[in-house]
Amino acid sequence: MDTDFAGRNVFVTGGHGALGEAVVKLLRERGATVNAPAKHELDLTDEAAVTRAYAALPSLWASVHLAGGFAAAPLLDTTLAAFRAQHEINGQTCFLCCREAARAMKGRGGRIVNVASRPAVVPVAGIVAYATSKAVVAALTQHLAVELRDEDILVNAVLPSIIDTEANRRAMPKADHSAWPKTGEIARVIAWLASPVQTLTSGALVPVYGRS
């Protein structure tokens, strides 16, 4: 597993966040050449910019989509603008990256790994905009797994619960942080799904809940 990605190029969005840093570090340790543009370098909501970014990549093996955002509000306090914003930053950015990754991998095969969320499949009150935007990611993953099957492009997603990060600990100081999944643990699942030795699984929504 240490040399799974030797000589392979991997594109990672959100690579400078807490989970992103863990994923990028692990992929590089396993031999990957990782391109992880910062937010100011690539606006993932800009269709033309995303298309240009993927077109400029060398031969692409895997694309890992970690970028996104979170907002919480009860239904009656959720504006249409807030709903649209969550769907843009989570659902639409994932769609654009999946589309351009598939274009880049066409004829060669590859791996796409998305990050949805536990609330996409296990309803939670008070986060309707976020949860439904992540449900888009989950549905997109499963549909693309079927559409891209004959191209030998495997598409999967992980579904974290609350991730153990400094920001989440500050936001929820009284929670049982030991029950939360760790970034390194989730990174190992993502690396497996993106690996060339993973040849069977596509269309999976993989729970990475920890004990929470």
Structure notes:
- The chain is α/β, with parallel strands linked by helices.
- It has a single domain (9-208), classed as NAD(P)-binding Rossmann-like Domain (Rossmann fold), CATH 3.40.50.720.
- It is 40% helix and 15% strand.
- The protein contains 6 helices and 6 strands.
- The protein has helices spanning 18-29, 47-55, 80-105, 128-147, 166-171, 183-194, and strands at 9-13, 33-35, 60-65, 110-115, 153-160, 205-208.
- A 6-stranded parallel β-sheet has the order 2-1-3-4-5-6, sandwiched between helices.
- The longest helix is centred in the middle third of the chain and has 26 residues, at 80-105.
- The model has no long low-confidence stretch (mean pLDDT 96).
Beta-strand residue percentage: 15-25%
> What structural category arises from helix and sheet content?
alpha/beta
The 3D shape can be described as: globular
The CATH class is identified as Alpha Beta
Q: What's the name of the CATH homologous superfamily?
A: NAD(P)-binding Rossmann-like Domain
Please tally the β strands and state the result: 6
For the termini, the CA-CA separation is: 29 Å
Question: How many independent structural domains?
Answer: 1
What's the CATH architecture name? Answer: 3-Layer(aba) Sandwich
Outline the biggest β-sheet. 6 strands, parallel
CATH topology: Rossmann fold
Low-pLDDT windows of residues = none
Largest beta sheet: what is the strand line-up?
2-1-3-4-5-6
Record keyword descriptors for this entry.
Rossmann fold, 6-stranded parallel beta sheet, 6 strands, 212 residues, alpha/beta
